[in-house]
Amino acid sequence: MPPVELRIGLIGCGTVGSAFAASFVDRKSSLEQLTGKRLRLARVAVLRPHLRDPRLAPAPLTGDAAALAADPTIDIVVEASGAPNAAEWLRAALDRGAAVVTANKQALARDTTLLAALAARESRLHCEGAVAAAVPIVRALRESLAGEEIHALRGVLNGTTTYVLGRLEQQRPFADAVSDAQREGFAERDPSDDLSGADAAAKLAILCSIAWREPVTLDRVHVRGIDATVSETIAAARENGGRVRLVASAQRNGHLYASVEPQVLDGADPLASGTGAHNVVEVRTALAGTLTWHGAGAGGRSTASALLADTLAAARTLGRARPAAYPAGALR
Ligand SMILES: NC(=O)c1ccc[n+]([C@@H]2O[C@H](COP(=O)([O-])OP(=O)(O)OC[C@H]3O[C@@H](n4cnc5c(N)ncnc54)[C@H](OP(=O)(O)O)[C@@H]3O)[C@@H](O)[C@H]2O)c1
Fold first, then answer.
1. Same structural domain for residues 116 and 203?
2. Residue 143 lies in a domain
3. Which of 63, 101, 237, 320 lies at a 20 to 30 A Cα distance from 17?
């Protein structure tokens, strides 16, 4: 019998999506060997297909991401668009039985149905790339620590603020530190999601929902970002050998408390160690004690690595019986 062919639809072909497409093409034969299935990048949706040369595209292009997500011939939807309405596409794909791989933290964290699916460990919804790029914290919480009781987690999950805080440590004025971050590619043209803490809050909501198997919506995360006033805190911290980082933390002791805020950390704290896009995540568990992961938390290639691993996981599980993990109709 010829191997099953799985058709992949990619939504978004920018920094992350194009790195995914290139590495998928490079590694296609080894991915096929690992899954025992034929894998085909069947279609790519972008916002402005008319601006692209179709001969250079990794697959036929479309401007209609919703139609790609709803297409019954697409088995795996890989979403790397950051589009504000991406959650609708992800839900539509899951509802029709497809697997979904996404790097889009805001789409997940702002959508209660998707958070509920994460909390229920829906086996067709994969999102390693949405938190700390290839640092395997989502898989660790979902699989390696599945039998554990998670007491607390905390992390430095936003590279822009780490970069800006590092520049402030060198006594750069706040506005200059933000411009440096933009020039060096550590910040978007509009860095407000990063500086306000909204980006880290979305990642924390995802991790909490998985860790504690309940949808943790963004309104449950207390958020305080950084602004020019943080320079004073940095100066005071430095006198005592401390560093300031935007720390996302959560603990559940009867009830859940989750926050994102600038904190003064001891210089020896693992969360104080990174600079730039370096992310750190620490998880405190009942049996395994405290575990720490760290590595590049952004960038096209690191995020593509997470999307590839998730695509592989999706390809392996597709075709198996779907566990009744969450109430029927919850994804409609
Ligand atoms: N960059 C990183 O380091 C990083 C790391 C982790 C996670 N992420 C997440 O990955 C996602 C993508 O980020 P990125 O940096 O790759 O963004 P990007 O470079 O701006 O690329 C976005 C891509 O999505 C397409 N797109 C936007 N709106 C669309 C729509 N309505 N329909 C179809 N396609 C649409 C764009 O099409 P056009 O090319 O036609 O404009 C572009 O190809 C975001 O959710 C981001 O948060 C990024």
1. no
2. no
3. 320
- The total domain count for the chain is 2
Residues 6+ apart with CB under 8 A from 235: none
Residue 18 CB–ligand 1 contact under 6 Å: no
Active site residues: 203
pLDDT in tens, the chain (332 residues): 777 999 999 999 999 999 999 999 999 999 999 999 999 999 999 999 999 999 999 999 999 999 999 999 999 999 999 999 999 999 999 999 999 999 999 999 999 999 999 999 999 999 999 999 999 999 999 999 999 999 999 999 999 999 999 999 999 999 999 999 999 888 889 999 999 999 999 999 999 999 999 999 999 999 999 999 999 999 999 999 999 999 999 999 889 999 999 999 999 999 999 888 899 999 999 999 999 999 999 999 999 999 999 999 999 988 654 444 444 455 54
Token pair, residue 53, equals 């040369």
Is the separation of the CB atoms in 237 and 269 below 8 Å?
Answer: no
Q: Is the CB of 8 under 6 A from ligand 1?
A: no
Q: How many CB atoms lie under 10 A from the CB of residue 197?
A: 24
- CB of 48 within 6 A of ligand 1: the answer is yes
Query: Is residue 197 domain-shared with residue 235, that is, in the same domain?
Result: yes
Please give the distance, rounded to the nearest whole angstrom, from the Cα atom of residue 331 to the centre of ligand 1.
24
**Residue 241 included in any domain:** yes
Which residue carries 């297409």 as its tokens? 71
Is residue 330 one of the residues assigned to a domain? no
Where in the sequence is the domain holding 27, given as residue range(s)?
5-134+300-317
Per DSSP, the three-state class of 227 is coil
Residues 290 and 306 in one domain: no
